[in-house]
Amino acid sequence: MPRINWVETREGRLAWREDGPRGGVPLLLLQRFRGTMNDWDPALIAALSQNRNLIRFDSTGIGRSEGSVPETIAGIAAVAAEVIDGLGHRQVDVLGWSLGGIVGQQLALDFPHLVRRLIVAGSSPGPDTGGPQQHPRVQQVMTKPETDEKDFLFLFYPETEAALASGRASRARITAQPDRGPNVTAAAFMAQMKAISSWGGVLHRAGELRLPILVANGAHDVMLPAYRSYVLSQRAPNAKLVLYPGAGHAFLFQEIEDFALDVDRFLTR
Predict the structure, then answer these.
(1) Per DSSP, what are the bridge partners of residue 240?
(2) Tens digit of pLDDT for each residue in 106-141?
């Protein structure tokens, strides 16, 4: 486990870690709802950091970091921009998963000079009434004070033997990490919920997202259906869509080898 570093911001000190060799354009990871920098599957971190510098951090009010969670997506994106500046990077590539994908889109709109390429994983361009909708049980499960393995598997993996086995293995790798730090507090996840519910989306500005974008999702995502990834890929002028069959919201943990190869091709082409 790489050591914890600290970066000073207007909201206080934020915790961050880095993996992989330094040099070149780093890849900044933006985490999911109720996730900390230690909720990435370490096997994915190892695969993505083989040939590039990887940066992950706890935003304000998350994990070990000081401050409070902003109650708008723009506010969360501004924190990410401050981290990029604080670490001395002129530009980064961004991989945002779920809530992180929402933040990544806002970051690319509000601070376009900081983002070279954007990967939007298992996410959404905002409110959309067309196509398949979120599974009706999702809101009840994702907002429970504590979630167990059954909840984790429901939210992130399809109900097939292969997917569930992959999900259990991934969860075991995540929870086995030493020095994981504190979980997201109730106050923090309520602020995240407020930010998500008040976000108007980017569809009306998708034409401004002219940077290269890789939009990826599992074909069977119950939280943010793959149709929303398709909509974003149709609206952003330089976007590529990749869907992983037999996978759900955590496709990037289920199909680590394929996803890492897709990311590498996208970032180096």
Answers:
(1) 214
(2) 999 999 999 999 999 999 999 876 889 999 999 999
